[in-house]
TrEMBL record:
Residue stretches spanning the membrane: 584-606, 691-713
Boundaries of every EF-hand domain copy: 299-334
Organism, scientific name: Sander lucioperca
Superkingdom assignment: Eukaryota
GO function terms (MF aspect): calcium ion binding; GTP binding; GTPase activity
Signal peptide: none
Gene: rhot1a
Protein name listed in UniProt: Mitochondrial Rho GTPase
Membrane topology summary: Single-pass type IV membrane protein
Length: 717
């Protein structure tokens, strides 16, 4: 929006009329109506509104309102009238400055009209005024009568708005402003693809093609470098353009009036008129349906790999603290804190490895996709990968309910929430996933601890990310984020008698009716196991609620802790329905094992007195309560035998061994299902499951019938 101001009789309205009609008007009104020039007519493809102000027809209040709306103001004076020139500094510039904010001054253009009436130029008088006021962009002498410089006047007015000098250059110091240097330095580092501190010919051509859609000819490249060589000693190094040479070129563009060149570069890299990255550039729109997650796609990982290789100067597949700082120099702040080193995998020096680097990006994308988009914007993903925005790097997964219906998933990141009472070993469980044993965990500072741990696991040859989240033990205030996950870990300390109670209450309160798979972890299994102060033991609780038996775990090892449990968690998260089927089979298996023990006892009872001493030998393990007068009855001994803690522990060990073998069978069936979903495979799996079911039911019936027959014989006795 352009406003033309004047006192009277300087030809302001004539300028506007001459532009529109392309001829000098015979009759000139006191004020021209507001004129709109379409975008397809202007060189910059921007619609332009021209507003005329007349002191005779409009009030000061109307003028103030128009000034507040204007993008550029043209102050018209007559070159043959010294009083109109004096009014520029005595009236108009002070009035405009009083009505605009200091931080958002409107650019001014001085227009000297009626140049056809004089033979001399007014520039000698105007130049001191331009040096005094930084808001003045330029001065143009023109003539409305013979149409001299009329179109140039409007071009400079548009240029003052679209390509202002103020944010870029300081005329007094004759150098770039600090904010401009900072922005151009980031652009240089993003364009320096090999991070060697210079832009070689390939990088310069890529930069030229990115910003101006055309490469530079070899001779043009040499001409540019020769200009820099003649003016700077260290502007060109190893036949490439250094940062100092890059900044000098833009200084030269501005000094020669080619502001649009620098602004084209800045806007291509996401900067606005205040040299700040725009919200549209940093946070492009991305649709996020409910119950879906966000992940990085293959192209994004390739880009991040190139960024890692660019800054891993010693090629040790890890980023030292200095290399991390160098990587984030294009950021306005440091995005990673010391907790990141305890969230992802590190090497023996505590440096983030390549796998840990990608894991941290995966974690950020999963938890806060907007922040991931922002980070990718700072690194210049859309420019380097020639994409419309960073949104092209994100994959939004489909709804989890669809995955359950189709019994397969395309996701690569799975979340496991770890719950447990204080001191149960949750933090140790997380750090063990990163390969840190108890000794390594003790060196972690309290303010550097992390509530997240993420790394890769392999499920049937496919690399998947497992994200562990330690949930604070606040039973009454578990949020939706604490409950939303793919698999749940309930951790208790086997050496603490009150530890399991929290897990049991949380499960019954939040997960008993949930379809989310749950696993109970018996942490600190290297310590002595004590009886839990709960109505049911952990094994009985799991049996009652159709859960897997408690999985023993310890990180008190000399080497890195075993990671098999994390692979199981990932498998359960990928195939939750298979996990439920496995639990049902385990229930029947437990029933079958108990029935088998009963059958053995019945056989012993029928064999007579020679095997009585076998049962009596168990007296050293528990006190047997006599159920008859003789105290030697085989039936009495067998009844008490079934209640022994020793026998219960034997059954638990038996179930654990069979569970491991059965899990391998189920995993194999899943693998076959993933690779071949033919009807024959499905039928074979169904027949195998039916066999286990029939075997367990048959053993149970046989045991019941055996006891019934024995009781009948005992009554006859």
């Amino acid at each position: 929006k352009i406003i033309y101001t004047e006192k009277t009789k300087v030809g302001k309205t004539s300028l506007i009329m001459s532009l529109v009609s392309e001829e000098f008007p015979d009759e000139v009104p006191l004020r021209a109506e507001e004129i709109t020039i379409p975008a397809d007519v202007t060189p910059e493809r921007v619609p332009t509104h021209i507003v005329d102000y007349s002191e005779a027809e409009q009030s000061d209040e109307q003028l103030y309102q128009e000034i507040s709306k204007a993008n550029v103001i043209c102050i018209v004076y007559s070159v043959n009238n010294k009083k109109s020139i004096e009014k520029v500094t005595s009236h108009w510039i002070p009035l405009i400055n009083d009505r605009t904010d200091k931080d958002s001054r409107v650019p001014l253009i001085l227009v000297g009209n009626k140049s056809d009436l004089v033979e001399h130029s007014s520039m000698e008088t105007i130049l001191p005024i331009m040096n005094q006021y930084q808001d003045i962009e330029t001065c143009v002498e023109c003539s409305a009568k013979n149409l001299k410089n009329i179109s140039e006047l409007f071009y400079y007015a548009q240029k003052a708005v679209l390509h202002p000098t103020g944010p870029l250059y300081c005329p007094e110091e004759k150098e770039l402003k600090p904010s401009c240097i900072k922005s151009l330095t980031r652009i240089f580092k993003v364009s320096d693809l090999d991070n060697d501190g210079i832009l070689n010919d390939n990088e310069l051509n890529f930069f030229q093609r990115t910003c101006f859609n055309t490469p530079l000819a070899p001779q043009a490249l040499e001409d540019v470098k020769n200009v820099v060589r003649r003016n700077m000693t260290d502007g060109v190094k190893d036949n490439g353009l250094s940062l100092k040479g890059f900044l000098f070129l833009h200084t030269l563009f501005i000094q020669r009036g080619r502001h649009e060149t620098t602004w084209t570069v800045l806007r291509r890299f996401g900067y606005d008129d205040d040299l700040e990255l725009t919200q549209e550039y940093l946070f492009p729109m991305i649709k996020m349906p409910p119950d879906c997650t966000t992940e990085l796609n293959h192209n994004a990982y390739l880009f991040l790999q190139s960024v890692f290789d660019k800054h891993d100067k010693d090629r040790d597949c890890a980023l030292s603290p200095e290399e991390v700082k160098d990587l984030f120099k294009v950021f306005p702040y440091m995005p990673w804190g010391p907790d990141v080193n305890h969230t992802v995998c590190t090497n023996e020096k505590g440096w983030i490895t390549y796998q840990g680097y990608l894991s941290q990006w995966t974690l950020t994308t999963y938890l806060d996709v907007q922040r991931s988009l922002e980070y990718l914007g700072y690194l210049g993903y859309s420019i380097i990968c020639e994409q419309e925005s960073q949104a092209a790097a994100i994959t939004v997964t489909r709804n989890k309910r669809i995955d359950l219906q189709k019994k397969q998933t395309q996701r690569s990141v799975f979340r496991c929430n770890v719950l447990g009472a204080r001191g149960s070993g949750k933090s140790g469980f997380l750090q063990a996933f990163l390969g840190k044993n108890l000794q390594g965990q003790r060196r972690i500072r309290e303010d550097h601890k992390s509530f997240y741990a993420i790394s890769t696991t392999y499920v049937y040859g496919q690399e998947k990310y497992l994200l562990l989240h330690e949930v604070m033990p606040d039973f009454d205030f578990l949020s939706e984020a604490d409950l939303a996950c793919d698999v749940v870990c309930l951790v208790y300390d086997i050496n603490n008698p009150r530890s399991f109670e929290y897990c049991a209450k949380v499960y019954k309160q939040y997960f008993i009716d949930s379809k989310t798979p749950c696993v109970v972890i018996a942490a600190k299994s290297d310590l002595h196991e004590v009886r839990q102060h709960y109505s049911l033991s952990p094994h009985e609780f799991c049996r009652k609620h159709k859960l897997h038996p408690p999985q023993p775990f310890t990180c008190s090892t000399t080497e890195a802790p075993n990671k098999d449990i994390y692979t199981r968690l990932t498998t359960m998260a990928m195939y939750p329905r298979r996990s439920q089927q496995l639990q049902i089979v385990l229930i029947y298996l437990a029933l079958a094992s108990s029935s088998s023990v009963c059958v053995v006892c019945c056989v012993l009872s029928f064999c007579g007195g020679e095997y009585t001493h076998f049962c009596v030998s168990f007296r050293s393990h528990a006190r047997l309560r006599c159920m008859c007068a003789c105290n030697r009855c085989t039936y009495c001994l067998c009844q008490n035998l079934l209640k022994l803690e020793l026998l219960r522990s034997i059954k638990a060990q038996l179930r654990r061994v069979v569970f491991n073998r059965l899990l391998g069978w189920v995993e194999g069936s899943i693998l076959m299902e993933a690779s071949d979903n033919s009807p024959r495979k499905v039928k074979a799996d169904l027949k195998n499951s039916t066999f286990w079911l029939r075997a367990s039911v048959g053993a149970t019936v046989f045991a019941v019938l055996g006891f019934a027959m024995y009781r009948a014989l005992l009554k006859q006795r």
